Amino acid sequence: MLLPERSAARVVSCDVFDTLLLRDHRSESRRFRDIAGLAARRLAAEHGIQRDPAAIWTARTEVQRHAYRALDLARPTGDVRFADMVDAMARILGLAGPAAAILHEAEIAVERSQLSANAPLLAWLAAEAWSGTRVIAVSDIYHEAGTIALLLGALCPRHPVARIYTSADHDATKRTGALFATVLREEGAAPGEILHIGDDHRADVAIPRALGLRTLQVVRPRHLILRRRTDALRARIVSALAPPPRYGRPGSRFA
């Protein structure tokens, strides 16, 4: 990504995942399996609760799939909330209280371990902020702003982001333009005063450009995209060959 010497914008808006924070070669399915494995280990070590990692992974993927299917039917401009997905997963897995909280904590722990700061972009943004440009983050994600702030604080503690907008918090997405409308209203800015930077062609380039925002696309290396696709294919094969997950009930070996 070639960054201009100066943005000439009043506000620079940045996507978070694969823009401010870079994901590694692992696919989403692999990441969910890593989260499930960590959650299972912590449940056993901290609460003496045995849960099959495959059951946690299946609950995670199925809850997310059904949540987004329902969203598309009910309010296609909105987004789901991770807290709601965790509640649904906990009910499926028979977890409550601190044990249920591990489902959320494991997700954030794995995210932190598999993300890295986009150092060149953050350095450029810091220079922009020093010169008086307001820097914000705008993300289509089921996490709330507080969670994104924790990740940014852990991985790039001196980041210049002044405010974080997420689709989960505002029930509006970039891909429909609704979140950008919220940003424009909240920031009190005209579309031409904002430069938006992101990796997704539709959500970060086509839609904001149609609304009058200036845009700059982050393009990940082709070899990384191919590695993720290979990893996703491997995950599907493993899933197809795996035995059915055991959710566990009180009194069973997996209770």
Secondary-structure element series: EEHHHHEHEHEHHEHEH
Provide the β-strand percentage band: 5-15%
Indicate the mean pLDDT.
90
Distance between the termini: 50 Å
Task: Kindly state the percentage of residues in helix.
Answer: 40-55%
- As residue ranges, the low-confidence spans are 249-255
CATH architecture assignment of the largest domain? 3-Layer(aba) Sandwich
How are the strands of the biggest sheet laid out side by side?
5-4-1-6-7
CATH class of the largest domain: Alpha Beta
Reported for the largest beta sheet, the result is:
5 strands, parallel
Q: What gyration radius follows from the Cα positions, in whole Å?
A: 20 Å
- Overall geometry: globular
Indicate how many domains the architecture comprises: 2
What is the SS-derived class?
alpha/beta
Fourth CATH level, the homologous superfamily of the largest domain: HAD superfamily/HAD-like
And the CATH topology of the largest domain?
A: Rossmann fold
Task: Characterise the protein shown here.
- Mean pLDDT is 90; it is low at 249-255.
- Helix 1 packs across helix 2 and helix 1 packs across helix 4 (97-114).
- This protein has helices spanning 28-47, 53-74, 82-93, 97-114, 119-130, 145-155, 167-170, 178-187, 201-210, 222-241, and strands at 11-14, 21-23, 115-117, 134-139, 163-166, 194-198, 214-217.
- The chain has a 5-stranded parallel beta sheet, sandwiched between helices. Strands 2-3 form a two-stranded antiparallel ribbon.
- The longest helix has 22 residues, at 53-74.
- It has 2 domains: 11-24 and 116-223, Rossmann fold, CATH 3.40.50.1000; 28-113.
- The chain is built from 10 helices and 7 strands.
- This is HAD family hydrolase.
- It comes from Methylobacterium dankookense.
